[in-house]
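Problem 3 from the worked examples.
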Amino acid sequence: MFNSLGWPEISVLLVLGLFVFGPERLPGMAAEAGRALRRLRQYTKGLTDDLKAELGPEVGDLDLASLNPKTFVRKHLFEDDDELVPAARRQVPLAPSEPAPWDPDAT
């Protein structure tokens, strides 16, 4: 969820929260945010279970996470299977004495 959020960004957010909410209210706010996140996860799990129950047994084993566009693209375009990677994109290592490819029209 927070893949692009590193430790420097988290520390800046904590210091900013400390200034905005104060040291007395910040732990309570963090606890409430954790409870809200837990409730949100429970709601989405319940929604997923209800959806699978309503769709029936033929799609009951459907992995909804695989329908995420990022996962779908990674699986179908960037997988290392020779069948899925086009021949033009496969990287073949050069022999020790072979020169690197060079296109005079590209320079």
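Problem 4, a separate protein:
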Amino acid sequence: MIIGGHLKTSFIDYPEKVSTVFFTRGCNFRCPYCHNSELVLSTEGDTESAYIQTFLDKKKKYLDGIVISGGEPTIHKDLPEFMAWLKTWGLPLKLDTNGTNPRMLKQLLRDELVDYVAMDVKAPLRKYGEVAAAMVSIQDIQESREMLMASGVDYEFRTTVARELLSLDDIEEIADEISGARRFALQRFKDNEEVLAGPGQFTAYSPEEMNGLRDSLEERFETFIIR
């Protein structure tokens, strides 16, 4: 497993839990608004298992959960083994994924290796490849969505919204495609120096526009969140 970063303590990455976050390197998407470009573009470097073991042995009592993020964790074939190892500390595991590997997702769910899944929804299906800047199997995306919605595991779908990439109509279309999901989170784009396309390329919707989306969308989901 190629681990490129570690956030020792997070109060926001695992809902209602204090978590620690391990970031994998490499991704099969090139979303231009991505704020983890250093992780996406590099597959070098590793966090030694001895470091992880020492950290978790020492800090487990202060944590409520562990998050595996990226990059895209499911491009790594040894992800199930890594998550099984992390499970030995007895903490709930959350996975952040783009949903392009439903076969691995199915394995993780079947083997009860994941307790919470956050799946990114990049765009309406008709423009998925455009926003992800990559070849995308829409069938795989749909399979992952349906699998999560039918599973007993806790999950959320989440969409980062930048004005230049997703129109208000696009966001409405996304909501239609995943209507009935347990939890949907809209995330305002935040510009920084690590954005893959470079800073200053994209802008966020205003708080007023985001609240307007809340009024329009929230009845379609059990829980609707704006971050």
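Solution to problem 4. The chain has a mean pLDDT of 95. The domain at 3-226 is CATH 3.20.20.70 (TIM Barrel).
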